[in-house]
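Workshop exercise sheet. Pairs work together: one partner reads the sequence aloud, the other fills in the structure field after running the prediction. Swap roles for the next sheet.
Pair: D.N. / O.F.
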Amino acid sequence: MRARKRIARAVQERLNEPPSDPGEELTDGDEEDAAEEAALRSGAVVRPIRDEPDELVFRFEVGPAILAQLLEKLERIPTMPLMNALGARYPGFYQLFMGGHPKYIGKTARPIGQRLKEHARKLRHRTGIDLDSISCRYAFVEDPSLVDVAEGALIDFFGARSLAEWNASGFGSKVTGHRRGQQDASEWAQRYPADLRVKVLLDLSSPVPFQQLVKSIKSQSPITLSVPKRMLASFQRDHDFSVELGSNSRSFEEWMKFVEQHLATGWRINRQAESWYIEPGV
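Structure field:
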């Protein structure tokens, strides 16, 4: 009863009417009006207005509002080498540059440094890209929910001005899962293919456990290299032996041929477009 009386007073105050007597009961009609008013004021009901001129309707767009503040903030932040930003500890927005030219705008609800590490691994050993030419700038966000809210406005703004050509190219995509089978290389990966001829120097002494060899090559691989998790136990069981290296310096391609020659019977390297998997043969 008290709640209904408070609603009635609020409605009457909005209409500049005197408040009702504290002991007066609400009529059925008053209850319906009060309930509707309360719902409208609480935001529980959104009623699009399409039959009035747009200039008479105020529509608050959260994404563009955040974007306006973000642009002002980013303009005051200097760029830095990508490799110097891998320790960024909070969520937020970031921008990547190559040779001083903006290429990608991103957001993450994780620490920004984690996402930049993923980008650095992808950019490393790519034909046509010098990792030293990649720089970035970023802005932390205290409320992670705002990161997703502003994403569309962010991409639209930078994309329309040709300031984020990598955003529509597949650059930001996660590595294709093993279960999804063969996948075509993204537009970005076709433009900047992995340099499989890059030299991989291993700090290992012969003989070396085969599993350790694969792990060491993976750490310097120009492309995603892994044993699928569900196959890892079998891989470890079947490859519990050591090998003589002969040389510690080979190209990535040469190392993978060496690995292939020493795989246990029934295992193979599945060379997909953007990731290579060591798995049982089919």
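Discussion prompt: The two ends are 73 Å apart (CA to CA). What would you look at next?
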